[in-house]
Write a structure and sequence with these properties.
The chain has 339 residues and is of the alpha/beta class. The chain has helices at residues 13-18, 23-28, 51-68, 111-118, 128-134, 184-194, 212-215, 227-231, 246-249, 254-261, 273-278, 290-302, 304-321, 324-338, and strands spanning 2-6, 32-36, 74-78, 95-100, 122-125, 141-143, 166-171, 198-204, 218-222, 237-240, 266-268, 284-285. Helix 10 (254-261) packs across helix 13 (304-321).
């Protein structure tokens, strides 16, 4: 079976982690994923004067999909073809499955997202929050989380014994660093109290995005592809702060799942899917106040036995519920049922 997958951003997180990393596993089941990455971005350029030309070019390219996919049976459409703009989704040949891992319906009254959902045989959602929204526009809804590569992520059972410093870690894109603001004082207090025994490590694309208060006390590590497999197993705990708003409730807890796959405990905001994942077992904390963040981080730094126990529980849950193999298994069920 050949399944086309139109991704909006290529090697960016959603395209890579929900489609790209699954290709070899699909192939082992006799399914070839033909990924189609638009030459013209699905997202408008920052410069407003460039947007009319971008829109024309993007629309013309999307129109070519009608011919390109002419003999197609199944197409996975990751998000709408052009961000926030309804286009030719309903005219795509064959059966279309919409795959969504963000709250893409928040802009322009969700017209593009709704159009894509109505044009599809079913909608695959990364979490329950997204599924609830799209169930209003399509009767076929399945929840498939973003998987983590537990086979490639090696757990370091001696991580609490070997490092000279214990590491509080965070990894992500620059735009998500803003969520540190409510807990910055708590983190700085922990670092000050524990001195040279603890390090805050932030992995992102450029240091200028790190809030000034943290830039002065953290160790910045520049992101590179697959850095998580080198870095995360050496950490003592992983952080995932978030605001509580409609956009963050649509997030698929992927950062949290990466930490879990490395066998380290988590301290995360109890928002959206984070709450659902925390419900699988005792492997971390979901603090709501700054004082609770301080206490949670401090406990996991000081109590090695608890830290190790939480880490092993996290890894076990990641293997059982969120491995790439389990995700592909859910996709196979979807393809059999809908196609």
């Amino acid at each position: 079976m050949i399944v086309n997958a139109i991704t909006s951003t290529g090697v960016a997180p959603s395209g890579w982690y929900r489609i790209g990393v699954l290709k070899s596993i699909f192939e082992a089941h006799g399914i070839l994923i033909n990924e189609i990455i638009p030459a013209v971005s699905s997202f408008p350029p920052m410069e407003k004067h460039k947007r009319p030309v971008w829109l024309i070019a993007a629309l013309l390219e999307r129109l070519t999909y009608l011919s390109l996919l002419k003999k197609t049976d199944i197409t996975i459409l990751q998000r709408e073809l052009i961000s926030t703009i309804p286009t030719v989704e309903r005219f795509l040949p064959g059966k279309v499955i919409l795959d969504v891992d963000d709250a893409i319906f928040l802009n322009k009254r969700g017209l593009a997202a709704i159009n894509a959902a109505k044009s599809s045989v079913g909608v695959v959602c990364g979490n329950a929050y997204l599924a609830e929204y799209f169930s209003k526009y399509n009767a076929n809804i399945k929840i498939i989380p973003t998987g983590v590569d537990v086979n490639k992520m090696m757990v370091n059972p001696r991580r609490l014994e070997e490092p000279k410093k214990k590491i509080i870690g965070w990894i992500g894109t620059p735009g998500n660093l803003k969520y540190f603001k409510p807990i910055t004082t708590a983190i700085c207090s922990v670092l000050k109290q524990m001195g040279d025994n603890v390090e805050l490590r932030i992995i992102t694309s450029h240091s200028s995005a790190i809030p000034v208060e943290l830039r002065n006390v953290c160790n910045f590590v520049k992101w590179y592809p697959n850095i998580e497999f080198d870095e995360l197993p050496t950490w003592t705990l992983g952080l995932m702060p978030l605001d509580d708003d409609p956009w963050t409730r649509g997030k698929c807890a992927f950062k949290m799942l990466q930490y879990m796959s490395a066998g380290i405990p988590v301290v995360v905001s109890p928002v959206g899917m984070n709450v659902d994942v925390l419900g699988f077992g005792q492997f971390g904390y979901g603090p709501e106040t700054e004082d609770q963040w301080y206490e949670a981080i401090k406990i996991l730094l000081e109590n090695d036995s608890l830290n190790y126990q939480f880490g092993m529980t996290a890894r076990s849950i990641a293997e059982r519920e969120f491995s790439l193999e389990s995700v592909v298994g859910k996709w196979l069920d979807v393809l059999e049922e809908w196609c």
